[in-house]
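seq:
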Amino acid sequence: MNHIVTVQDAVTAFADYVEPTAAELDAVEAEMPLILADVDLIDAQIITLDRLPNELDARRIRRARNRVLSERRALANRTAGTVLPGGAA
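struct:
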């Protein structure tokens, strides 16, 4: 019988040394406007979970959805010419 503890030790042995690379941090930074737009959309949707949405709620959701779409388009346009290392597609 294999103990999970021994497997866990092997997997987490280098956990203290694994840090995000500069490229990964840059990627997160580039996606931050989209992440914040998604959070705003989720907030707007959560508000309407326990009641019928009124006109202001509908506008807020519509604006948040449009902002998400705009940020997705902007992110796609910024990353369109980026070449991934290692020949990945």
